[in-house]
């Protein structure tokens, strides 16, 4: 069938004097029936009958009943209208099913009206058959226009949503990283957060949990749902989700492969989401450094102290070089046993026998070690500020040393090497 015959090539079998009443009655029937059978088109945004439905029905009926093959411009306008309608449905995030169903119902209603008219006018069976075939081809053509517009709108919407979600994620991260001082945070612009979340079609939760997932093979597959906001990195995925979904999401990730590890923050208000992401990233870093045990799921609530003390790595490094300089100069074996004993005493302030029991050594061994510790640090062990700082530095450093991290000792050695 040629384009010129797409509407129908019957030379307008409908008498011109009946065109207007038949057209009006057909449009009214189509609109009423579609609204009854397709809930999506029952009401418009303001509670009125969907205006686009009536516009589309009137235009489609007019072109079909007119049937003049020379009116190319009218058919082009109709095609464009139906493509725009499909595009609009996609941009609104609607499924294509309702609009296709509406077109099918409209075609059925149109045929009922045409058949009644044709029978009353005593049209031949051949003419009725030709009108039916023409109507079916016409409906198929309009459906193709709808779906073509819908496909284009879907691609456009998907791209825009991805861009908006990336912009939202950047805003959340930068609102934390860009703070001038942790003691005087700038805070997150809540109005801007809500605007970006709306643009990204992310339902902003009242309480958010951040997850950071490390992987070595394929990245984890995350459920494709609006509630889950994610950012893919080279070997990590960062996720924000509602509090009530965090546990199930973490389980889903760990079940997807043994190479996956997920760190989970505690629930926070939306304006702390960026901080929560930093905590989860830091937790995975501390697993890599040997400070935190390598469990499949790392709960930040179980490691609050280490997360806090490792918040400023350069500060830890500096304090380690300054406060622990005498200890860093010991042999590796001496350094290990003295640091274990000193940290145990700082944390418990127990007697030599009690510390010996904890370390599974003889009390006299602890006394000997304590004597050496006094030789190294002297009167500083009576300074409360020094004791406080040393406790924090040892608490963060000893687990790293035991895990094989040699950076503190290498830095100490480089400082002590004589200049050439």
Structure description:
This protein is mainly α and 420 residues long. The protein folds into three domains: 16-158, Globin-like; 203-309, Alpha-Beta Plaits (2-Layer Sandwich); 313-416, Arc Repressor Mutant, subunit A. The chain is 62% helix and 6% strand. The chain is built from 16 helices and five strands. The chain has helices at 16-37, 51-66, 72-91, 97-120, 125-177, 190-199, 246-255, 273-289, 304-309, 313-323, 325-328, 332-348, 352-359, 363-377, 384-402, 407-416, and strands at 208-214, 229-232, 236-242, 261-264, 297-299. The chain has a five-stranded mixed beta sheet with strand order 2-3-1-4-5. α8 (273-289) links the parallel β4 and β5. α1 packs antiparallel against α2 (51-66), α5 (125-177) packs across α8 and α12 (332-348) packs across α15.
Instruction: Write the CATH fold name of the largest domain.
Output: Globin-like
What share of residues is helical?
Answer: 55-70%
How is the largest sheet built, in terms of strand order? 2-3-1-4-5
Q: Gyration radius, to the nearest Å?
A: 37 Å
Profile the largest sheet.
5 strands, mixed
Task: Bin the strand percentage.
Answer: 5-15%
Tally the beta strands.
5
Shape: rod-shaped
User: Pairing-aware structural class of the strands and helices?
Assistant: mainly alpha
Number of helices: 16
Low-confidence stretches: 1-12, 45-49, 178-186
What distance separates the N and C termini?
Answer: 91 Å
In total, the number of domains comes to 3
In the CATH hierarchy, the architecture of the largest domain is: Orthogonal Bundle
């Amino acid at each position: 069938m040629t384009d010129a015959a797409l509407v129908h090539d019957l030379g307008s079998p409908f008498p011109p004097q009946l065109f207007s009443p038949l057209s009006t009655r057909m449009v009214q029937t189509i609109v009423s029936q579609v609204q009854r059978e397709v809930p999506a088109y029952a009401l418009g945004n303001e509670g009125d009958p969907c205006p686009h439905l009536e516009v589309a029905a009137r235009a489609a009926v007019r072109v079909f009943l007119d049937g003049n093959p020379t009116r190319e411009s009218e058919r082009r306008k109709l095609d464009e209208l139906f493509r725009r309608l499909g595009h609009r449905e996609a941009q609104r995030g609607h499924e294509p099913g309702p609009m296709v169903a509406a077109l099918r119902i409209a075609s059925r209603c149109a045929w009922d009206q045409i058949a009644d008219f044709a029978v009353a006018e005593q049209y031949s069976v051949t003419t009725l058959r030709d009108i039916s075939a023409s109507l079916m081809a016409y409906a198929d053509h309009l459906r193709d226009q709808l779906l073509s517009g819908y496909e284009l709108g879907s691609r456009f919407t998907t791209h825009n949503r991805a861009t908006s979600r990336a912009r939202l994620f950047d805003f959340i991260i930068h609102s934390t990283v860009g703070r001038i001082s942790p003691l005087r945070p700038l805070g997150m612009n809540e109005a801007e957060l809500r605007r970006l979340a709306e643009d990204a079609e992310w339902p902003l939760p009242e309480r958010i949990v951040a997850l950071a997932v490390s992987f070595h093979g394929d990245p984890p597959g995350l459920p494709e749902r609006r509630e889950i906001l994610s950012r893919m990195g080279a070997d990590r995925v960062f996720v924000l989700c509602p509090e009530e979904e965090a546990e199930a999401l973490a389980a889903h990730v760990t079940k997807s492969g043994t190479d996956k590890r997920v760190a989970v923050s505690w629930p926070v208000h939306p304006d702390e989401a960026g901080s929560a992401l930093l905590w989860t990233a830091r937790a995975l870093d501390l697993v890599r450094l040997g400070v935190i045990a390598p469990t499949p799921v790392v709960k930040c609530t179980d490691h609050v102290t280490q997360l806090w003390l490792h918040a400023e790595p350069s500060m830890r490094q500096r304090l380690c070089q300054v406060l622990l300089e005498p200890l860093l100069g010991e042999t590796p074996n001496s350094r290990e046993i003295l640091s274990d004993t000193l940290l145990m005493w700082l944390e418990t302030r127990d007697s030599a026998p009690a510390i010996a029991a904890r370390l599974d050594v003889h009390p006299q061994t602890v006394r000997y070690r304590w004597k050496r510790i006094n030789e190294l640090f002297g009167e500083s062990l009576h300074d409360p500020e020094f004791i406080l700082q040393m406790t924090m530095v040892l608490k963060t450093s000893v687990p790293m040393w035991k895990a094989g991290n040699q950076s503190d000792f290498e830095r100490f050695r480089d400082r002590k090497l004589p200049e050439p």
